[in-house]
């Protein structure tokens, strides 16, 4: 097929389960020479970055041979994503940088790469705008790496550690950074050399991925990254995460300084934090604090610190909200819904999974005010809902139509005879609406490779 697509410039292959090495080797020899974008990544939660090559259960999908062949066949690449299970050596990485010195985007994962790889990247690719590097080697401080390395590499790494060489070489165009130790674990931004990057170049960063980081990193982000538009601080695999008093103070300080934020993901939230977001983040479009991801990985975390007070303050201050996860907020009532439908009229995606205090009246109000704009509504585990809510939804859709594409309701509601009848009629009057009873099908896993959350197409 590729032999006939000689003008193809952009190619994406997303796979879950992981990409198979033999398939990729067959593919690479037929890649069109005019490719500008090559994106090979694993979707879902199966991607893993192994700490050592010996810990692998399967051969890596992407190897030096694969990268070498791509270098030969696709000399015009500007955007490269190799975010599958990879084992790419430093030598091969240097060849990659030499071949594509005009890269604007590079996402790559390999346990063989480290801080010296970042240094070489900054030296070679001064047009870089978007960087994601995932490697367990980033946990090794450069000073220790220098002690273990040979003379030339050791001197280079030692200078990087002591003279802020890394931050001095950071491309002025680089605005998006994701430096991770594993799938959901960021480097420690409060430790060198990452700290220097943030201290001296944090002002130019607009998109920062810092999952599973803690208050030390949060503090430095609030000090030096004041122009952020997107910040991911979510904890991908940690259930029932509870903020300490100190963490709450630091997060409140952080959002006070980030007035340009459009996307924010937190490990947890409470009324105080939501109030500060409402006061200072008026441009916010997307807000998550452990919704979809937690339900997929285990029991939904209850956000016991979130009440109507916090949601109302958020709604009053963030009129641009389009995507909002309130999953696990078991204390919010129809008062929160009133505030959202009045102030946040642009909401398209609303996660209310586990909001056990909501009743039919709250959902009816949602449809009355936002029925023409909502695309996705998750009501799973809303235990107070009855079959009456489906009757109300049907009546609204029959009278006014709906933009809704996905509606999830508790199985206890979906299984009732009255609900079954309403759903049957909804399938006829709104054939594009998918009504689900056990899983919403969206598994938010952080802003990296985040779905667009749009069902309009």
UniProtKB/TrEMBL annotation:
Record-linked InterPro entries: FBXL15_LRR (IPR057207), Leu-rich_rpt_Cys-con_subtyp (IPR006553), LRR_dom_sf (IPR032675)
Residues annotated as domain F-box/LRR-repeat protein 15-like leucin rich repeat: 280-429
Pfam family, one: DUF7885
Family matches, as PANTHER family: F-BOX_LRR-REPEAT PROTEIN 4, PARTNER OF PAIRED, ISOFORM B-RELATED
Name this polypeptide is given: F-box/LRR-repeat protein 15-like leucin rich repeat domain-containing protein
């Amino acid at each position: 097929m590729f032999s006939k697509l000689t003008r193809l410039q952009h190619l994406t292959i997303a796979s879950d389960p992981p990409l198979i090495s033999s398939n990729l080797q067959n593919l690479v020899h037929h890649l069109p020479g005019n490719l500008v974008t090559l994106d090979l990544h694993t979707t879902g939660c199966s991607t893993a970055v192994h700490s050592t090559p010996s810990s692998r259960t399967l051969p890596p999908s992407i190897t030096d041979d694969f990268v070498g062949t791509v270098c030969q066949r696709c000399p015009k690449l500007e955007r490269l994503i190799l975010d599958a299970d990879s084992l790419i050596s430093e030598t091969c990485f240097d060849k990659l940088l030499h071949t594509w010195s005009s890269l604007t985007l590079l996402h790559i994962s390999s346990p063989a790469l480290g801080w010296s790889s970042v240094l070489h990247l900054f030296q070679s690719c001064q047009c870089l705008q978007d960087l994601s590097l995932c490697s367990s080697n980033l946990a090794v401080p450069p000073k220790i790496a220098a002690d273990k390395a040979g003379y030339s590499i050791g001197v280079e790494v030692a200078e990087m550690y002591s003279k802020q060489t890394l931050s001095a070489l950071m491309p002025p165009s680089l605005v998006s950074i994701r430096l991770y130790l594993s799938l959901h674990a960021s480097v420690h931004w409060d430790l060198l050399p990452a700290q220097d990057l943030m201290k001296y170049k944090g002002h130019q960063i607009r998109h920062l991925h810092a999952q599973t980081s803690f208050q030390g990193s949060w503090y430095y982000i609030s000090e030096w990254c004041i122009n952020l538009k997107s910040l991911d601080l979510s904890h991908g695999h940690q259930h029932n995460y509870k903020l300490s008093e100190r963490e709450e103070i630091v997060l409140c300080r952080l959002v006070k300084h980030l007035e340009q934020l459009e996307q924010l993901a937190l490990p947890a939230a409470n009324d105080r934090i939501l109030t500060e977001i409402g006061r200072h983040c008026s441009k916010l479009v997307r807000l998550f604090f452990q919704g979809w991801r937690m339900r997929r990985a285990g029991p939904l975390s209850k956000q016991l610190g979130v009440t109507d007070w916090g949601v109302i303050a958020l709604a009053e201050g963030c009129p641009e909200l389009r995507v909002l996860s309130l999953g696990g907020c078991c204390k919010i009532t129809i008062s929160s819904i009133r505030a959202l439908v009045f102030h946040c009229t642009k909401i398209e995606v609303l996660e209310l999974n586990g909001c056990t205090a909501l009743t039919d009246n709250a959902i009816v109000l949602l449809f009355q005010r936002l029925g023409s704009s909502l695309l996705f509504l998750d009501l799973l585990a809303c235990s107070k809902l009855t079959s009456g809510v489906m009757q109300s939804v049907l009546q609204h859709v029959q009278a006014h139509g709906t933009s809704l594409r996905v509606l999830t309701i508790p199985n206890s509601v979906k299984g009732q005879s009255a609900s079954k009848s309403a759903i049957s009629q909804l399938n006829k009057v709104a054939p594009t609406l998918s009504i689900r009873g056990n899983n919403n099908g969206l598994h938010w896993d952080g802003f990296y490779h985040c779905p667009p959350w749009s069902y309009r197409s």
